[in-house]
Design goal:
Length: about 400
């Protein structure tokens, strides 16, 4: 594996994630916080609450310069484009710096975006689109409970291509009844559109989930992963994280924030945040998944806004965690090793100056077993290490008593 640094973000980058939970119907495999649009309050009411939550958390932002704004779901493209735009306008009103360097991404599902809606997005600075294609097989779309058709996906990709837009494709593999030949057909269609970014995900389900029946064996799943990597490489897409491939310069900034230890604020149902200034090792916190609780809280918040000083008084204990040293060290190792750059010794020394020897000791057997390799910066996964990443992550999971000395 070759290691690069060209996709690393500058210091002090920050971004927002907005969760839009509306869907036409829930996919059979989905475990995100999503609802069919008739099951919850109207989108316009939800967006009013969303902006209240935004204003409530504004003071936690470490900088006004935004690297990324990301609208995820759910299906953000299902709601009116004016609602999406209203959030961008709210950020601008609060003096956040949104310029041509800010990546603004919206997740879209086929058949939920027409040309009028697309142009409205473009007029207000949305410059990246994440397309939930998943598969191009009519049979597998039906098995997954996807509401769109194969032709809907092609029409959406044709529209994005017409305007030469920056878009990413989600590809789901290891589906029930899926063969290597089926996957090759999906990859062939992807190749014909030459996207700048592809996110392939192996279908992950609970043991008793009905969609586990008829899935490919572990051996075939590994062959599928290898096929995907080979085919995407031939398209000029480099793997910069275990589940993400991009052409140079088109890596997702939203993803970079997560994997490079930057702050981010999540707004909306179930959205997660990470702020390093709260507590000695930072804090992770999340919004409730319950729409009734969400409505009640943001109709009558305990204060006008949060600060790092008032934070713990305004969040109940089930909705945040002050990271311990062992948790923060584990997080840094796991997120870094997922990436092409790997785990940096400098990053370790800056944040955990007394723990470099411990990480060295943990890495020794993994190096001998061929799961890790040394890099100019530190350590990175080998190809085998990528396939057995859970083994590596288990080794780099630290318990409090292991850091007591």
């Amino acid at each position: 594996m070759i290691f690069f640094e060209h996709w690393l973000l500058p210091l002090n980058m920050f971004g927002f994630y907005f969760h839009i939970p509306y869907c036409i119907q829930r996919c059979h495999y989905c475990d995100f916080t999503t609802f069919e649009q008739s099951q919850i309050l109207p989108a316009r009411d939800y967006f009013e609450l969303l902006k209240r939550e935004l204003n409530y958390k504004l003071n936690l932002a470490p900088t006004k310069k935004l690297a990324s704004i990301y609208f995820g779901g759910g299906t953000p493209s299902l709601v009116g484009s004016d609602l999406i735009v209203s959030v961008i306008e709210e950020l601008a009103k609060k003096d956040f710096l949104i310029d041509d360097q800010t990546e603004i991404t919206i997740e879209i599902n086929p058949a939920t975006v027409d040309e009028t809606k697309l142009l409205h997005y473009l007029d207000f600075g949305i410059n990246r689109f994440s397309v939930g294609a998943q598969t191009f097989s009519a049979n597998h779309l039906k098995i997954c409970g996807r509401e769109h058709s194969f032709q809907d996906t092609l029409n959406t990709l044709d529209l994005l291509s017409k305007y030469n837009l920056n878009y990413s494709l989600d590809l789901l593999f290891a589906l029930p009844q899926q063969s290597l030949e089926d996957l090759k057909k999906d990859l062939s269609i992807i190749s014909s559109y030459s996207p700048k970014h592809v996110s392939p995900y192996c279908l992950t389900l609970k043991d008793n989930h009905p969609m586990n029946q008829g899935r490919p064996s572990n051996k075939i799943q590994l062959e599928m992963f290898q096929l995907i990597e080979s085919e995407l490489n031939q398209m000029g897409l480099e793997k910069y994280e275990i589940s993400n491939f991009a052409k140079p310069g088109f890596e997702s900034r939203h993803n970079q924030l997560y994997w490079q230890d930057y702050d981010y604020l999540g707004i909306g149902l179930s959205a997660h945040s990470y702020i390093k200034s709260i507590g000695p090792y930072g804090s992770r916190f999340w919004t409730t998944k319950n729409m009734h609780e969400y409505t009640q809280f943001f109709e009558n918040p305990l204060s006008d806004s949060l600060t790092s000083e008032t934070f713990t008084n305004n969040y109940c204990s089930t909705e945040f965690e002050l990271l311990t040293e062992s948790e923060a060290l584990t997080d840094l190792c796991h997120t870094s090793l997922r990436t092409r750059e790997g785990l940096s010794k400098n990053a370790l020394l800056q944040k955990f100056p007394d723990r470099l020897d411990l990480v060295h000791r943990r890495s020794s057997k993994l190096l001998k077993d061929g799961l890790l390799q040394e890099t100019p910066q530190g350590w990175g996964l080998t190809k085998t290490g990528v396939y057995l990443s859970n083994v590596v992550f288990e080794k780099f999971t630290f318990l409090p008593n292991e850091l007591s000395s």
